[in-house]
Each structure stands twice: as C-alpha cells, then as structure tokens.
Amino acid sequence: MNSIMRPHVFINVAASADGRISDESRRQIRISCEEDMQRVDRLRAESDAIVVGIGTVLSDDPRLTVKSQALREERVKNGRTPNPLRVVVDSRARTPLNARVLDGEAETLVAVSDLADEERVAALREKASVFVAGQEKVDLRALMEYLYSIGVRRVMVEGGARLNHSLIAEGLVDEIMVYYGGMIIGNGPCIADGPSFKPPVPLELVRVSRLGSGVLAVWKVLADKS
Ligand SMILES: NC(=O)C1=CN([C@@H]2O[C@H](COP(=O)(O)OP(=O)(O)OC[C@H]3O[C@@H](n4cnc5c(N)ncnc54)[C@H](O)[C@@H]3O)[C@@H](O)[C@H]2O)C=CC1
Ligand SMILES: Nc1nc(O)c(N)c(N[C@@H]2O[C@H](COP(=O)(O)O)[C@@H](O)[C@H]2O)n1
C-alpha cells in the first residue's frame, strides 16, 4: 500500500463480553459504565475529529460533542474549538437534515461518494461541509489525507461495525480501544463487521485494566500501515 500523510487514527468501541456493539435491531445499547463514559469524553476532548458511519447516525442519532464543560473550556484555552470536528462517512448523502450531527453545536463534515444525489448534497451543504471521494463507497484513504491537509492530527473513530471493518481493511487504524461491559448480547453487529481477514489482523496488547464494572483493553494494530 502506498503511504499517505494521515492523522493518528484510533477506534474506540464499547462491546459486550461476546464482542457485540449493539443488538440485532441495531439500536443503540448502553454498554459503557459511567467511568467509561467519562473516559470517552476525555478521548473526544483530546481529538481533532470524531468519525462515524452513516449506519451509526441513522441508528443512534449521536451528538458527538464533548459533554464536560470543563473539557470544552480547556480546549478553548488551548486555542481550539470547544468540540472536535464531526465527520460522517455517508456515501449516498443519507444524513437526515434534522440529525443531531447537523445541529450546529460543532463543525461537521459529511464525506460522500460520487453516488450521492446532487440535491441531497446541496441541502447538506447548507448545514455542513461536504467532501466527495470514491465512486461507490467513500474513499477512506482520500478522506484521511484530506483531514490531515486541514490540520487534523488525531482522529477518534466511534463506529460502527462496518466502518470499523473498512478502516482496518484499508490499513488506516493505529490503535483499537475496546471497553468490554458485563453483558452478553447474542446476535448483533460486532466490533468489525465484514468479510474475514485472511490472515487475521494481528494486534499487540498495549494495556488492560479494570474500569468500573468492565474491562478496558488497548490494542496496537500491527498490520501494514499506510
Ligand atoms: N457500542 C459502541 O461503541 C458503538 C455501537 N455502534 C452501533 O453500530 C451499529 C452501526 O454500525 P453499522 O450498521 O455497521 O454502520 P456504520 O456506522 O459502520 O456505517 C456503515 C455505512 O457507512 C457507509 N459507508 C460509506 N463508505 C464506507 C466505507 N468506505 N466503508 C464502510 N462503510 C461506508 C455505508 O453506507 C455503510 O453501510 C449501530 O447498531 C450502533 O448502535 C456504533 C458506534 C459505537
Ligand atoms: N463508548 C460508548 N459506549 C456505549 O455504551 C455506546 N453505546 C457508545 N456508542 C457511541 O456513542 C455515540 C453517542 O454519542 P453522544 O452521546 O450522542 O454524543 C453513539 O453514536 C456511538 O458512536 N459508545
């Protein structure tokens, strides 16, 4: 793979003990304990951009903002915007115009592909920036290069399952943080949904710790990096 200039990219995800990130209805499930939610808020505050897939926007309607006022103020003190840039990977420009990511609380970039309907893109441009790359799916390497070019150096990916898989498949992930909550979900999307990696993507365990009622594992991705 040709190397590109791109930000440091990490995935943060909350999973059940059986590795599921929601149930078969794909509706959001609260897996994280309070301590983990605070850790996630700090990670957001330390990031320049938060990336999610359109599946996550349609299922969860997330805000993707920093919840702690103190952390937002600290960012501002350091010359940054109160919240990181929100990025939605959305090939066909399906982000609803009333989605919380378009609420103006933070800047938002919607990444679409050539498949996106022009009228939908024009409507999104009223509320967000739009980046176009890729014929069918969004070209994730081009997106990461673009984010780097606008000064983004640290990207937090908050799912979902299919976007995580694609980013790992493209060699665009450096680190994966998994909070395992004390529950079994059964059927549902897993941490990375897609065709089997052959061979499996190797990870190195960086650290593991008990957090609240669950376990936090931090992994470094050892596969070829771009
Ligand atoms: N427990 C947790 O930490 C989290 C759980 N979730 C859960 O994950 C589920 C959503 O995950 P998914 O349905 O897999 O949707 P997703 O959020 O991964 O979005 C995938 C969609 O993005 C679009 N896309 C455009 N370009 C793409 C590319 N190059 N690669 C991959 N996708 C591309 C496609 O339309 C694709 O179907 C929900 O159930 C949500 O609740 C989501 C985030 C975090
Ligand atoms: N860290 C974490 N723990 C859980 O238990 C979760 N269900 C999620 N989901 C992610 O958080 C987003 C919600 O963000 P807002 O609170 O609306 O800002 C959701 O879309 C998932 O990406 N995460």
Description:
The protein is α/β, with parallel strands linked by helices. It has a single domain, classed as Dihydrofolate Reductase, subunit A. It contains six helices and nine strands; from the N terminus they run E-H-E-H-H-E-E-H-E-H-E-H-E-E-E. It has a nine-stranded mixed beta sheet, sandwiched between helices. The radius of gyration is 17 Å and the shape is globular. It binds 1,4-dihydronicotinamide adenine dinucleotide (NAI) and the ligand Nc1nc(O)c(N)c(N[C@@H]2O[C@H](COP(=O)(O)O)[C@@H](O)[C@H]2O)n1. 1,4-dihydronicotinamide adenine dinucleotide is lined by residues 13-14, 21-22, 26, 28, 31, 52-56, 59-60, 89, 91, 137-138, 140, 158-163, 166, 189, 193. GO terms for molecular function: 5-amino-6-(5-phosphoribosylamino)uracil reductase activity; NADP binding. This is 2,5-diamino-6-(ribosylamino)-4(3H)-pyrimidinone 5'-phosphate reductase. InterPro entries: DHFR-like_dom_sf (IPR024072), Rib_reduct_arc (IPR006401), RibD_C (IPR011549), RibDG_C (IPR002734), Riboflavin_Biosynth_HTPR (IPR050765).
CATH structural architecture: 3-Layer(aba) Sandwich
Write down the overall geometry.
globular
SSE order, as H and E? EHEHHEEHEHEHEEE
Q: Roughly how many Å is the radius of gyration?
A: 17 Å
Helicity level: 10-25%
Helix/strand structural class? alpha/beta
Strand order of the largest sheet: 5-4-3-2-6-1-7-9-8
Total of DSSP H or I helical runs spanning 4+ residues? 6
CATH class: Alpha Beta
The average pLDDT value, as a whole number, equals 96
Pfam family, one: RibD_C
Protein name: 2,5-diamino-6-(ribosylamino)-4(3H)-pyrimidinone 5'-phosphate reductase
InterPro entries: DHFR-like_dom_sf, Rib_reduct_arc, RibD_C, RibDG_C, Riboflavin_Biosynth_HTPR
EC number: 1.1.1.302
